[in-house]
Amino acid sequence: MRASAKWTACTTSLCPDRTAAAPRPTSTSGECARLLAEEARAFRPAPVQAASNHEAALPALLAARAVGLPFVYEVRGLWEYTTASKIAGWEGTERFALERALETLVAREADLVFTLTAAPADELVLRGVDRARIRLAPNAIDPDSLRPVARDAALAASRASRKAPSSPGMWVP
Protein backbone atom coordinates (compact mmCIF):
# COMPACT_ATOMS: atom_id res chain seq x y z
CA MET A 1 0.00 0.00 0.00
CA ARG A 2 1.35 3.43 -0.93
CA ALA A 3 2.12 5.68 2.00
CA SER A 4 -0.35 8.28 0.71
CA ALA A 5 -3.15 5.72 1.02
CA LYS A 6 -2.14 5.26 4.66
CA TRP A 7 -2.53 8.99 5.29
CA THR A 8 -6.22 8.51 5.89
CA ALA A 9 -5.23 7.32 9.34
CA CYS A 10 -3.50 10.63 10.07
CA THR A 11 -5.05 13.62 11.73
CA THR A 12 -3.65 15.93 9.06
CA SER A 13 -5.36 17.65 6.20
CA LEU A 14 -2.82 15.95 3.95
CA CYS A 15 -5.11 12.92 3.74
CA PRO A 16 -6.47 13.07 0.19
CA ASP A 17 -9.45 10.80 0.76
CA ARG A 18 -10.53 12.10 4.16
CA THR A 19 -13.84 13.94 4.10
CA ALA A 20 -15.30 16.36 6.59
CA ALA A 21 -17.96 13.76 7.42
CA ALA A 22 -15.42 11.06 8.21
CA PRO A 23 -14.88 10.08 11.85
CA ARG A 24 -11.85 11.68 13.46
CA PRO A 25 -8.82 9.41 13.00
CA THR A 26 -6.81 8.30 16.00
CA SER A 27 -3.23 8.17 14.67
CA THR A 28 -0.61 10.19 16.44
CA SER A 29 1.35 13.09 15.05
CA GLY A 30 4.40 10.84 15.26
CA GLU A 31 2.83 8.18 13.03
CA CYS A 32 1.77 10.82 10.52
CA ALA A 33 5.26 12.32 10.61
CA ARG A 34 6.77 8.90 9.90
CA LEU A 35 4.51 8.42 6.87
CA LEU A 36 5.23 11.91 5.59
CA ALA A 37 8.96 11.37 6.05
CA GLU A 38 8.72 8.19 3.93
CA GLU A 39 7.10 10.22 1.15
CA ALA A 40 9.63 13.04 1.52
CA ARG A 41 12.52 10.58 1.26
CA ALA A 42 11.01 9.12 -1.90
CA PHE A 43 10.07 12.37 -3.65
CA ARG A 44 12.59 14.85 -2.15
CA PRO A 45 10.51 18.02 -2.34
CA ALA A 46 12.43 21.29 -2.04
CA PRO A 47 10.58 22.19 1.18
CA VAL A 48 7.92 20.40 3.16
CA GLN A 49 4.95 22.75 3.38
CA ALA A 50 1.83 22.54 5.52
CA ALA A 51 -1.12 24.82 6.11
CA SER A 52 -3.01 25.62 9.29
CA ASN A 53 -3.49 24.25 11.79
CA HIS A 54 -1.01 22.47 14.03
CA GLU A 55 -2.76 19.12 13.42
CA ALA A 56 -1.44 19.18 9.85
CA ALA A 57 1.66 21.25 10.47
CA LEU A 58 3.28 19.48 13.42
CA PRO A 59 3.64 16.11 11.63
CA ALA A 60 4.94 17.92 8.54
CA LEU A 61 7.47 19.83 10.66
CA LEU A 62 8.65 16.60 12.30
CA ALA A 63 8.95 14.90 8.90
CA ALA A 64 10.91 17.81 7.43
CA ARG A 65 13.35 17.77 10.32
CA ALA A 66 13.69 13.97 10.11
CA VAL A 67 14.80 14.12 6.48
CA GLY A 68 16.73 17.39 6.63
CA LEU A 69 14.40 19.49 4.50
CA PRO A 70 13.24 23.06 5.11
CA PHE A 71 9.75 23.47 6.55
CA VAL A 72 7.29 26.14 5.37
CA TYR A 73 4.16 26.87 7.40
CA GLU A 74 1.17 28.58 5.80
CA VAL A 75 -0.88 30.14 8.59
CA ARG A 76 -4.34 30.63 7.13
CA GLY A 77 -5.82 31.61 10.46
CA LEU A 78 -5.41 31.28 14.19
CA TRP A 79 -7.94 28.53 14.81
CA GLU A 80 -7.91 28.91 18.57
CA TYR A 81 -9.37 32.40 18.11
CA THR A 82 -11.87 31.15 15.55
CA THR A 83 -13.15 28.70 18.14
CA ALA A 84 -13.15 31.44 20.78
CA SER A 85 -15.40 33.52 18.53
CA LYS A 86 -17.97 30.71 18.62
CA ILE A 87 -17.70 29.44 22.20
CA ALA A 88 -18.01 31.88 25.08
CA GLY A 89 -15.16 31.53 27.56
CA TRP A 90 -12.98 29.45 25.21
CA GLU A 91 -10.00 31.77 25.69
CA GLY A 92 -9.91 30.79 29.36
CA THR A 93 -9.71 27.03 28.73
CA GLU A 94 -6.71 24.73 28.85
CA ARG A 95 -7.54 23.58 25.31
CA PHE A 96 -7.25 27.18 24.03
CA ALA A 97 -3.86 27.50 25.73
CA LEU A 98 -2.69 24.18 24.29
CA GLU A 99 -3.78 25.03 20.75
CA ARG A 100 -2.16 28.46 21.02
CA ALA A 101 1.07 26.90 22.27
CA LEU A 102 1.13 24.29 19.49
CA GLU A 103 0.47 26.91 16.79
CA THR A 104 3.23 29.05 18.25
CA LEU A 105 5.66 26.14 18.42
CA VAL A 106 5.14 25.18 14.78
CA ALA A 107 5.44 28.78 13.57
CA ARG A 108 8.57 29.44 15.64
CA GLU A 109 10.23 26.28 14.35
CA ALA A 110 9.32 26.89 10.68
CA ASP A 111 12.02 28.05 8.32
CA LEU A 112 9.48 30.29 6.59
CA VAL A 113 5.93 31.32 7.52
CA PHE A 114 3.26 32.61 5.16
CA THR A 115 0.20 34.47 6.43
CA LEU A 116 -2.76 35.83 4.52
CA THR A 117 -2.76 39.26 6.17
CA ALA A 118 -0.64 41.43 8.43
CA ALA A 119 -2.82 40.72 11.50
CA PRO A 120 -1.75 37.09 12.01
CA ALA A 121 1.82 38.05 11.11
CA ASP A 122 1.79 40.66 13.87
CA GLU A 123 0.30 38.15 16.32
CA LEU A 124 2.99 35.59 15.47
CA VAL A 125 5.70 38.19 16.04
CA LEU A 126 4.20 38.88 19.48
CA ARG A 127 4.49 35.12 20.11
CA GLY A 128 8.20 35.13 19.29
CA VAL A 129 8.30 34.29 15.58
CA ASP A 130 11.08 36.17 13.80
CA ARG A 131 9.44 38.73 11.50
CA ALA A 132 12.22 38.18 8.96
CA ARG A 133 10.85 34.65 8.38
CA ILE A 134 7.25 35.81 7.79
CA ARG A 135 5.89 36.64 4.33
CA LEU A 136 2.43 37.80 3.32
CA ALA A 137 0.64 35.67 0.73
CA PRO A 138 -2.83 37.22 0.44
CA ASN A 139 -5.78 35.38 -1.09
CA ALA A 140 -5.99 37.73 -4.02
CA ILE A 141 -4.62 38.67 -7.37
CA ASP A 142 -3.34 41.93 -8.73
CA PRO A 143 -6.17 43.18 -10.96
CA ASP A 144 -3.60 45.06 -13.02
CA SER A 145 -2.15 41.69 -14.04
CA LEU A 146 -5.37 40.85 -15.87
CA ARG A 147 -5.15 42.17 -19.39
CA PRO A 148 -7.77 41.78 -22.10
CA VAL A 149 -6.62 39.75 -25.06
CA ALA A 150 -7.82 39.70 -28.61
CA ARG A 151 -10.53 37.19 -29.41
CA ASP A 152 -9.12 33.91 -30.73
CA ALA A 153 -11.34 33.09 -33.72
CA ALA A 154 -10.08 29.50 -33.98
CA LEU A 155 -10.83 28.86 -30.30
CA ALA A 156 -14.26 30.45 -30.65
CA ALA A 157 -15.04 28.29 -33.68
CA SER A 158 -13.86 25.20 -31.83
CA ARG A 159 -16.10 25.97 -28.85
CA ALA A 160 -19.05 26.77 -31.11
CA SER A 161 -18.67 23.46 -32.94
CA ARG A 162 -18.99 21.64 -29.61
CA LYS A 163 -22.24 23.50 -28.95
CA ALA A 164 -21.25 24.67 -25.49
CA PRO A 165 -24.40 25.28 -23.45
CA SER A 166 -25.32 28.84 -22.67
CA SER A 167 -25.99 29.41 -18.99
CA PRO A 168 -25.03 32.03 -16.41
CA GLY A 169 -21.39 31.80 -15.48
CA MET A 170 -20.31 29.83 -18.53
CA TRP A 171 -18.05 31.26 -21.19
CA VAL A 172 -19.58 30.95 -24.62
CA PRO A 173 -17.84 32.22 -27.77
Automatic annotation (TrEMBL):
Where on the tree of life does the source sit, at the highest rank? Bacteria
Please list the residue ranges annotated as the Glycosyltransferase subfamily 4-like N-terminal domain: 28-139
Which InterPro entries does the protein's record reference?
Glyco_trans_4-like_N (IPR028098)
SUPFAM superfamilies (alphabetical): UDP-Glycosyltransferase/glycogen phosphorylase
Protein name, as recorded: Glycosyltransferase
